[in-house]
Isopropylmalate dehydrogenase-like domain-containing protein (Cyanidiococcus yangmingshanensis), 336 residues
Amino acid sequence: SPTDALHTVVLIPGDGIGPEISEAVKKVFAAARVPIQWEEHLISTKNVVPGQDLIPSTALDAIRRHGYGIKGPLETPIGKGHKSLNLTLRQALGLYANVRPCRTVPGIRTKFDHVDVVTIRENTEGEYVGLEHEVVPGVVESLKVITRSASERGARFAFEFARQNKRRRVTAVHKASVLKLSDGMFLECCRRTAKEYPDIEFREALIELCCGYLISQPQRYDVLVLTNLAGDIVSDLAAGLVGGLGLTASLNKGEHTVLAEAVHGTAPDIAGKDLANPTALLLSAVMMLREMNLHDHADRIERAIYTVIKEGKNLTGDLGGKARCSEYTRAIIDKL
Ligand code: NAD
């Protein structure tokens, strides 16, 4: 049957604005006749039952089986409650690297022109192993775990990414001056891996200096490779340079699995009002299409998105416009 040729992609709409922006992705993909079919799984903080798995095994199995997924934002309780569902997903699926391209978008006015930075974040360990305990009342300990294997894997991913995407330079961002053992080992792994990639320039930067330069001379940087918490922070900073979280794409990669996800949250203030900007999820989905070798579809959709943004007539509120999510989506479909 004709559907035999279709790839199946698992769709997790998520909480808050998740269902609205997921709907936009489905509509744009249908209009572009992308040869995929969706398998939807409802993962939500609201469905978490104490004592049961945070994420249903049916959803995890589906992503493992099909290899590709797209995820909207998931609500995460702050300071208490269950473990983050995002973290659980990344760990359960072995999504060891997070890639975030932050490039100047024509039509979006920001402080700098020509920013083109990609952050590669080690996604599985560091401070996010979630090993915290209260030693005595008023004193807590939190462990940062760095392993040679995960650091080497992250570093190799960054250099391979640079080579495949014709980037010139990889900068390892660290705090090895203070965290001599943990960040020290991460840095040593980056240095050693760099020797295998003589075609890519290698540099090192202390994290605070890197942040200072990012907001004063962002053109200094090309590909950044970072540990988990540092990558989380610096990737949002880089997104802010090019127009914010509503615009930046993100992809999580494992050995056999790809999960595209918007990096912004559930935007509870505008959820359910048809006001969200679906661009971040759309561009993440475009990154996934490239992983599937559907380059023509990816290019067409990306061009349509950037044309609508450049024209500036149908922008959502976060970009200074008045269009609804559905109107912006319609404008992209018209371009297609
Ligand atoms: P948020 O990103 O949801 O919202 C911050 C601000 O940005 C809000 O004013 C919001 O309206 C706006 N915004 C975000 N995305 C937008 C979009 N696509 N279009 C237009 N405006 C957008 O951050 P928050 O308020 O700190 O977090 C809300 C919830 O989301 C929390 O429960 C948090 O844990 C969760 N969260 C989830 C993820 C994820 O699933 N990857 C990431 C970050 C936060």
Observations:
- The two ends are 27 Å apart (CA to CA).
- The pocket of nicotinamide-adenine-dinucleotide is lined by residues 17, 73-76, 86, 245-246, 261, 263-270, 276-277, 280, 318 (CB under 6 Å).
